[in-house]
UniProtKB/TrEMBL annotation:
InterPro entries: LPLAT_7/PORCN-like, MBOAT_fam. The keyword Transferase applies. It is a multi-pass membrane protein. GO terms for molecular function: 1-acylglycerophosphoserine O-acyltransferase activity. The chain crosses the membrane at residues 33-53, 65-98, 110-133, 240-258, 270-288, 386-403, 423-443, 455-472. It comes from the Eukaryota. GO terms for cellular component: endoplasmic reticulum membrane. This is Membrane bound O-acyltransferase domain containing 1. Keywords: Acyltransferase, Endoplasmic reticulum, Membrane, Transferase, Transmembrane, Transmembrane helix. GO terms for biological process: lipid modification; phosphatidylserine acyl-chain remodeling. The keyword Metal-binding does not apply. It is found in: Endoplasmic reticulum membrane.
Length: 494
């Protein structure tokens, strides 16, 4: 409690008379500078890796080795001796990978990886006291945890389950042989994703290292064409330039909007006690919008690094253009125009959502939505604000699902009505997201309660009333479980 009060008082050192906050362009702490420097070095290393260590010139083992060495160097440069936690976790889970049976490998890997990550999160609270840490080694640890558990579940699917019990996607990604130590290290610690991700599938990564990545994706498109002796060679240069432009714009917005509208604005006396409810609602939206560019910047730059190395090709779109969004972590346009909570979440931190679906949502027999939100909160850390966000998110998701399933079909009769419905649901979605994610940024309990009290807990109350009194139709869960190969074969036979 003392730590929370201290953090809360520190957050309220802004002006108590209004929302104006002085902008400082040169106040970025050293960890952020190290992060940007490492990612820029990784970008140049990725171009070099693609041009001079291409699969046609170099063996897969050499590519694995260089990708691993660069990754280890970058994390040591950024986090110093704290990366020992990263190496300990990797070695522990490789021991499980080698010794555990295929029927239990996913369980042991999951509990060890998540347990170690949680212990590190707890130590950060007691040692570093709610700050944006100068030694925030948890970022790479979170990415590695995703990869360890993803790989363990895919090995379990390939070696410990019957093929007919797998979904189509699980069958495609199932791994039939345990990886070598070099492959394991390269997958977890490669320089392209060790700092900021994203998580990816082991099969896709090995195909990239061995030079089969783009050909596999192109084969899905061109396999019907007769007489095609060779595939075109897609270049990632255009995609990299485009994503770098987005990253630069996001960085500019971070240095302006984020500094001009920090989250501390939500805790001054003007906001809590003087502004009316609608003003608070709109200002909350502006402040939460201003907190997004740093994520846009980090994830888009990480995506560009992978593309520069030749990884991330996803196929050909309907217009015949090559696409490089296999590893993209967000779709900015769909986020900003989302008309439902579900659509928003599907396009925000995409690879983490895919991981949660892979290791939790599709596999747990009870309360999949609730358990998935709990796992997401635990993965992010143990700050109380995370649990406020994910508890609120669970309520909002269930309420939004009930409203959508019961009423959406009434607004599809005409184009005009549908447009009006989309405008209203867009505004409701954006405001609901702002209300939900505010504690995620605030971290502590007291500022979160102060904010929600000033908003009269309106979204919590509305969501609870909807869940209690509005029936959830059965079709809301109809598509939860993926089709297995057995069901697909049976459907074709019928």
């Amino acid at each position: 409690v003392r730590l929370e009060v201290k953090a809360y008082k520190k957050m309220r050192t802004n002006s108590r008379t209004g929302p104006a906050v002085k902008v400082s362009f040169l106040s970025s702490p050293h960890p952020q500078v190290n992060f940007v420097a490492c990612q820029l070095f990784a970008l140049f290393a990725a171009f070099w890796f693609r041009l001079y260590l291409s699969p046609g010139k170099t063996s897969p083992d050499v590519r694995h080795m260089f990708a691993t060495i660069f990754g280890i160097y970058f994390v040591i440069f950024c986090f110093g001796w704290y990366v020992i936690h990263l190496f300990v976790l990797v070695l522990l889970c490789y021991a499980i990978m080698v010794t555990a049976s295929a029927s239990n490998i996913h369980r042991y890997s999951f509990f060890v990886a998540m347990g170690y990550l949680t212990l590190c999160h707890i130590s950060r609270i007691y040692i570093f006291h709610y700050g944006i840490l100068t030694t925030d080694f948890s970022g790479p640890l979170m990415i590695v945890t995703q990869k360890i558990t993803t790989l363990a579940f895919q090995v379990h699917d390939g070696l410990g389950r019957r093929a007919e019990d797998l979904s189509v996607e699980q069958h495609r990604l199932a791994i039939k042989a345990k990886p070598s130590f070099l492959q394991y290290l390269s997958y977890l610690l490669n320089f392209m994703s060790v700092i900021a991700g994203p998580c990816n599938n082991f099969k896709d990564y090995v195909a990239f290292i061995e030079g089969r990545h783009t050909h596999m994706k192109l084969l899905e498109v061109y396999w019907k064409q007769k007489g095609l002796h060779s595939f075109p060679e897609p270049s990632p240069t255009g995609a990299v330039i485009y994503k770098l432009c987005i990253a630069l714009v996001s960085l500019f917005l971070f240095l302006t909007l984020t500094k001009a509208f920090p989250v501390t604005c939500l805790l001054n006396d003007w906001f809590l006690y003087k502004a009316n409810f609608l003003t608070r609602l709109c200002y909350l939206y502006v402040v939460m919008q201003a907190s997004k560019p740093k994520y846009y910047f980090a994830w888009t730059l990480a995506d560009a690094v992978n593309n520069a190395a030749g990884f991330g090709f996803s196929g050909v779109d309907k217009d015949g253009n090559f696409c490089w969004n296999l590893l993209s972590n967000l779709n900015i346009w769909k986020i900003e125009t989302a008309t439902s909570f579900k659509m928003y979440l599907q396009n925000w931190n995409i690879q983490t959502a895919t991981w949660l679906k892979c290791v939790c949502y599709e596999r747990v027999p009870w309360y999949p939505t609730v358990l998935t939100f709990i796992l997401s909160a635990l993965w992010h850390g143990v700050y109380p604000g995370y649990y406020f966000t994910f508890l609120t998110g669970t309520l909002v998701t269930l309420a939004a699902r009930a409203v959508r399933n019961n009423y959406r079909h009434y607004f599809l009769s005409s184009k005009v009505v549908k447009v009006a419905y989309d405008v209203v649901t867009w505004a409701a979605t954006q405001l609901a997201v702002s209300y939900t994610v505010a504690p995620f940024v605030m971290l502590a309990v007291e500022p979160t309660i102060s904010l929600y009290k000033s908003m009269y807990f309106y979204l919590h109350i509305i969501s609870l009333l909807i869940i209690l009194f509005l029936p959830i139709k059965p079709q809301a869960h109809a598509q939860r479980w993926p089709q297995t190969l057995n069901s697909v074969k049976k459907k074709k036979a019928d």
